[in-house]
Design a protein that fits this description.
There is one protein chain. The chain is mainly α. The chain contains eight helices and two strands. Strands 1-2 form a two-stranded antiparallel sheet. Strand 1 (62-70) and strand 2 form a beta hairpin. Helix 1 crosses helix 4 (83-98) and helix 6 (119-146) packs antiparallel against helix 7 (156-181). The longest helix is centred in the middle third of the chain and has 28 residues, at 119-146. It is elongated and about 70 Å long. The N and C termini lie far apart (52 Å).
Amino acid sequence: MSTPVRSSPLGLTVLGMLHTQPLHPYGIQRLIKQWGKDQVVNVSQRVSLYRTIERLHAGGLVTVKETERDQQYPERTVYEITDAGRAAARSWLEEMLAVPKQEFPDFPAALSHLMMLTPQEALRVLERREERLAAAQAVLDAGLAAGADLPRVLMLEAEYVHAVAATQLAWVRSTAEDLREGRLTWSQQELSALAASYPAGER
């Protein structure tokens, strides 16, 4: 009896790559990078890819097509998607596209505790983030330009990542400017007084 497999971005991506042709794990990883899917799924650790393939195989979503033997390379197992895998990939895809998911990234969590810093300290760390975001935006700009001749459907995730990154950069710049000009400020005394103003049972 096959093991049920939970949906995941990497699982969907592996099934998507195998949807095109049978591949061995290295070929899957290479195709993910060639197609720019590594912008939206983490394949930096090959062990995560192998574990995902193992789960998909145990769940009957992929199967072994053949084992390649070459004197120049270690033995490689070639996988292909099954009918159950195609059905699962379509179900996961529709769910991920249609249903917004509550996610908990690091940055908003850190912003919720910004008052632990002074406004001057907060400005310094946001300026550091702004520098990194601006550099990343330049890379994303170049990526979009390089893919200008491709069908748009192949560039949708790049468009989305670019738009989200541009929005975050604009927000960080605006907030840093508010800190710089004194439009956003606070003190520990004010925050302590605010906390003390709530009834004890509501703190």
